[in-house]
Amino acid sequence: MDYKAIAQQTAQEVLSYNQDTSGWKVVKISKKVTVSSKTSRRFHGNIYRVEGIIPESTAKLSDFLYQPANRVTWDRSLKVHNMIHRIDSDTFICHTITQSFAMGSISPRDFIDLVYIKHYAENMDIISSKSVDFPGYPPSSDYIRGYNHPCGFVCSPLKENPAYSKLVMFVQTEMRGKLIPSIVEKTMPSNLVSFILNAKDGIKVHRASSGHRYLNGHSSLQKNN
């Protein structure tokens, strides 16, 4: 399987979602986070678009979101997030296990996702992910194996204040199992708002406690004093 080619194609698809302005319906606005959705072309469900402002530069925000090592320390929707295979400095495969949500009516899922960061002009970064098959991590009886159709983060400098970033997230997750679609549709918007708020809190804590240094496989960035 040509993982690199799949990663590049996924990033291009996320870019196309970001450029697509038609058909989105706002389903929730809370604490300056906007969630919109429309019918996915990939599966019988919705694709969600989540927008928020993060008080951090785009380069540092991208580094923070890309590195898997500390994801579970701030992302309360996950209980496991491990890199299981590195392809190159910009591409790796992760095994993720979610927490249960919707008051326990949606049990934990696990995912095998191909993650890739691509830098674009005007300081825009896309961190894309898509579920793939990976030898050594077949589905187990412990968890229902979910599937992420092309998802990702689009990080770009806020025009009014480049020290801040606009974060746009796209999610189209097929939970699988015997779930009533309406349960997912009712709970997903609130969970997506929580993700953005958790990321804002997480980057604030990380900035204060990491010696002002961001480290991952592709860069090391000093905090501006």
From TrEMBL:
This protein's record includes keyword Transport: yes
Bilayer-spanning residue ranges: none
The beginning of the lineage is: Eukaryota, Metazoa, Chordata, Craniata, Vertebrata
Any Gene Ontology biological process: lipid transport
UniProt-recorded Gene Ontology molecular function terms: lipid binding
Per the record, the domain of life is Eukaryota
InterPro entries in alphabetical order: StARD5/6 (IPR043556), START-like_dom_sf (IPR023393), START_lipid-bd_dom (IPR002913)
Per UniProt, residues of the START domain are 20-194
| Provenance organism | Jaculus jaculus (Lesser Egyptian jerboa)
| Protein name (Swiss-Prot/TrEMBL) | StAR related lipid transfer domain containing 6
**Keyword entries, A-Z:** Lipid transport, Lipid-binding, Transport
Q: What does this protein do?
A: May be involved in the intracellular transport of sterols or other lipids. May bind cholesterol or other sterols.
Tell me if Transport is a UniProt keyword of this record. yes
